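User: Fold this; tokens only.

Assistant: Input:
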Amino acid sequence: MTQRIEDYALIGDLQTAALVGRNGSVDWLCLPRFDSGACFAALLGDEDNGHWRIAPEGTAASDTCTRRGYAGDSLVLETYWETPTGTVKVIDFMPMRDKSPDVMRIVEGVSGSVGMSSVLRLRFDFGSIVPWMRRSHGHRVAVAGPDSVWLRSDPPVKTWGEQFSTCSSFTVAEGEQVAFVLTWHPSHSPRPKLIDPYKALKHTLKDWAKWAETCTYQGKHRDAVLRSLITLKALTYRPTGGIVAAPTTSLPEEIGGVRNWDYRYCWLRDATLTLGALLAAGYLEEAAAWRDWLLRAVAGDPADLQIMYGLAGERRLPETELPWLAGYEGSRPVRTGNAAVRQLQLDVYGEVIDSLRLARDAGLTDKPHAWNLQLSLLGFLESTWREPDEGLWEIRGERQHFVHSKVMAWVAADRAVTSLESDPSLPGDPDRWRAMRDAVHAEVCEKGYDPVRNTFTQSYGSKALDAATLLMVRTGFLPPDDPRIVGTVDAIRAELGSDGLVRRYSTEGASVDGLPGEEGAFIVCTFWLADALLRTGRAAEAEEIFERLLELRNDVGLLAEEYDTVAGRQLGNYPQAFSHIGLVNTAMALAGEKAAG
């Protein structure tokens, strides 16, 4: 039985992450990086595509644990099983790596005596390659091509091979522990250094507790905010500071549909909101690392600016389909890479410039070349902002004159003007950017506004609406009490609303995105609605929506990209950084704290 997306919890080591189901199975893990091939891909297929389940003997794959949760403010997962003979706890975590990534699973007897079973099926390259298994110095060693995985237990337990899997059977009594350690390394390298799993657990808990102490938010939603910040930290690729949109690929926006994309990359559209959340919560080091990643990634010819990049700023992310995977609940195709990398999205120029302005205003040490880079981006945008593009949502239909893209071009010019006004020592011509700012503003108000319905539209001449226009109030494009802003908020709520949540845009009829099928309500867009309501003076309504969104989180506080209001389940790649960023920023705003940006 396929588990729901929200049945999974996240563990990770700030370079990759794994999803652990309520049935005790690790069904998704890419090694050694977020964007590497998966060695456990049952999430997008079945058990034969790779998984690792530890659970009481005799339990079926459809059986789930009694309860679970994270240990304090950490990414250490504790899963409890109550059986007729006793209670057992499985502790899952990935310690911050020195060189090689480790997945550690400690089975601990809580009461009585419980027989346990471990079944490990390693399948490299997204479930397509069965490795060669052998024994070596008390380890089980799997090798195929460039990949090698070592499995050991402490104390040692008996293992055997069965149906191309490695099995173990053992018993734990109250107070006893058995630890399994799975370590990946390049197959041409020597055996990786052995790490004591029990010491690693103590260090991991200590590291997360220390990190969590930095959080400056003290409002009534602190637990939810901190869990979202921990999730955001878990999606950070520590060597570079880049933050992936999600650790998964191809989790569907519609069950059985084709809207399945690879999100294991870093999007510029998230830049300002991500930076704002980190700065507002007091995480200056992470904010600076994200800003520095941004500067490195976008360096070069402004005409070559991409909407997304790899973890280290890689530019080529070719999209490929994996036909051997059946897809999550039959949702095909399964894709790796993302062809949207080649799209023109003019809004990202505004995101980059706004992010760098935000970093400067927050007091982050400025980089010598940062301002010159912004001027270069502005120069390119000045000559291209009148062009149509694919927009924020990466449509795969015809290019349009998206209102949000134009508004972000206005943001780029506006932030340049305010930066020059606040620091006259910066080189640049403020009159030039004022002229551009005024031209964009006038065109958007003329061509992107529907006076009959009193709302800004998705694109010029269109009757369709777009939740991205909710961000207009945040950008300062118009005052919050402007009737056009209030009308836009009300129209989106009425036309794109679904059970109190908001869709990105309409997918009915001839959809602008050129794709068949529907999708769920977009979680971050609903946070944007709450923000817009708050800014337009409707705090009680904003609070109500925020509380509704909190109810969508699963039992360990995680959110996917979308929500199916009919089926009552999460959809899309998971956990989604954008959703958790929205939670943090809205909570900050509701608490009366000045949200950065």
